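It is worth pausing here to work through a concrete case rather than discussing structure prediction in the abstract. The textbook approach is simple: state the sequence, then state the predicted structure, then interpret. We follow exactly that order.
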Amino acid sequence: MKNTALIWIALIVLLSGCDASPSTPDVVLPLFVTATLPPSAAPPSTRTASPPTAAPTIDPIPGTTTSEVNVRVEPSTASQSLGTIPPFSTVQVAGKESFGYWLRIVFDDGNGWVRADYVQVSGEVPLVDAGAGSGSGARGAILRGVNVRSGPGGDFDSLGLLNQRDIVFIMGKNSSGGWFHISYPPAPEGAGWVSADFVEIANAVAIPIFGDGTPLAETSESAPEKIAAPADGDTADAPLANFALSPASARAIQFDGEISAPDDLEDWLAFSSSQSEIAIQFLCKTGAAQVELTLSGLPPIGCGEAQSARVEPGVVQLLKITPASTGDWVRAQFEIRIAISN
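Step two, the predicted structure:
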C-alpha cells in the first residue's frame, strides 16, 4: 500500500509538471539600424516677382489764371493750341516740367500745358515728364526769341520762330556742337535746327552727334536786321492808348507794340479800372523789354512775368514800356495784358 501510494504521488507530480506552461523568456529584439537617406535638397525657392509698383497718383493742385492762357499740346508756343482759358479761372495743376516754365493742367478730359507765369498756385507742384518727344531725351529751354533753321547755320531757311521759355526736345547736335537738331512740329519734316547759344540745357556734352557727323556748312545765327520801330511820339501826357476796365464792359484788354533805340525808346499806355485789384501780364515776342506801373511803386515787370497790383478805382494809371537793357541798338516787340481781379 505504501509503495502504491508513493507511485500515485510520483504520477501526480509528473502529470503536474507536464501541464505547467513553460515560462516565456524575455526576448531581446535585434537592434535594427535604419538607413537614413541623405536629406533631399530643397528645390531652390522661386521668388515670385512682385507686381510693378504703380506710380503714385498725384492729386491735382488748384490754381488760378492771371490772364487768358493758351493751352498747348506740348510746353511750347510752337505747339498746337487745344483752346484758351479766360483770366481768373480755376484750373487743376497736375505738374510742371523740369525748368518750371510750364505747368501741365487737366483740360477737356485730358491734359495740356500752360505757361507757369500766368497761373497762381498755392502749394508745391511736382515734376512730371514734359512729353514723349522723339530724340535723345534731352530737353532745353529757349533763352530768347530765335529762328528755327532748316540746317545748322544762320544762312539756312527759317522754318519758324521759338519764343523765350519754350521747351524743345533735342534729337542731336552738329559736329561742332554749335547747333541743336530739335523736334519742331510746324516744319514740313517735323524738325529743325537752333543755335546752341539760344538754348538753356543742363548737359550739352551728352547730346549725341546727329547723323554721320559730316560737317555741314555752318554760320552763326545772325542778329536781327536793324529796322527801327516807327517813332510814334507818345509821352506820359499823350499815351498811345487809354483803356477803361470794368466788369460791365471790358474785364481785360490786350495791347501789342514795339520799341527800339534810339528812335522810339519808350511807349506809354493809360488805363483806369473800376476795381482796385488788377493783374498785368507782359510778353516779349522779340528782344527784351519791361513795363512799369508808374504810380504803384512796384518794380518793373520783365518778359514773361505777371504781377498783381492795387490801384485806386477810377484813377488813370500809366504804364511805361522801355528796353530791358541799354545799348546802341535795341528793339523789342511786346504784348501787354491787363485784367481786373475782382
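Step three, interpretation. The radius of gyration is 44 Å. Residues 1-56, 132-136 have pLDDT under 50 and may be disordered.
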